[in-house]
Amino acid sequence: MWRSACATLRAAHADRGWAEVSAASAPDSVWHSLTNCVAYQAGVWQGLVLKGMEDATHPAAFRLAVVLRHTPPELAVRLVADKLRTHPQAQELMSYIVSLLTDDSPWCECNADDSQHTAPLRDLLLFGDCEAAVLAASREEYDAHAKRQRAAYSAMAPRHYVELRIKILNQLIQVPKIYQTPEFECFESAARENVDREICTLREHLLTGRHD
Q1: Which superkingdom (predicted)?
Q2: Could you read off the pLDDT of 181-198 as tens digits, one per residue?
Q3: Taking a C-beta distance cutoff of 8 angstroms, is the pair 76, 102 a contact?
Q4: Which terminus of the chain has a smaller tally of CB atoms within 10 A, N or C?
């Protein structure tokens, strides 16, 4: 995804940039790594586009943002500026990518006006939905995701983590819609089933004292 996006944007030194992104990536033992999180989202996005979904406003820039979602912010901004410095729309695309990376709640009423966003509201919502796509993964993939999420908080006491995770998942399951765009509506049922199942499993762990 990185190399194809860089090629489309005619960005220089794509391989060097990828090496920096890879070096800064989280280890594969946790979810937010290039091999886990980014690869999964890239596959979901490409699958939807191949099925006929209308792409983002700036397809290549959107893909760069997907890759950089969990890259340290300072590095992400520097890489984007470097890759786009000779592009005729450099400033517009830079602002577009930064808005995708920094807007975590585009569906709030206070954010309902597209004009205040550099990225269109649809793109912001799609970016968030793509991030949450793993919730609708197959049972095996979701369980692997949950284990890697736990690994990211290995320093936290097991019981504390389980209680916090249950709280977060309960809040998630209570929202009217997990996915905010029509393109991701088909993921809703599977996501709720996975989240419900994890909540039940975690509650059982609290009762039994099991924390694996």
Answers
A1: Eukaryota
A2: 999 999 999 999 999 999
A3: no
A4: C
How open is the CA angle 28-190-121, to the nearest 5 degrees?
A: 80
* Distances, alpha carbon 132 to alpha carbons 136, 137, 178, in Å: 8, 10, 8
For residue 208, what are its two tokens? 């039994």
Dihedral Cα 67, 124, 118, 109, nearest 10 deg: -150
Q: Helix, strand, coil % (nearest 5) of the chain? A: 70, 0, 30
**Alpha carbon 138 to its chain's center:** 17
Per-domain residue ranges of the chain: 2-131, 136-208
Tens of pLDDT, residues 74-119: 999 999 999 998 899 999 999 999 999 987 544 344 444 444 458 9
Distances (CA, A) of 52 to 2, 46, 47, 60, 145: 22, 10, 9, 17, 28
Cα–Cα distance between 109 and 13 in angstroms, integer? 41
> Which helix or strand (DSSP H or E) is residue 78 part of?
helix 73-84
Report yes or no: 1 and 38 within 8 Å, Cβ to Cβ: yes
User: Does the predicted TM-score (pTM) go above 0.90?
Assistant: no
- Extended strands (E) in 86-195: none
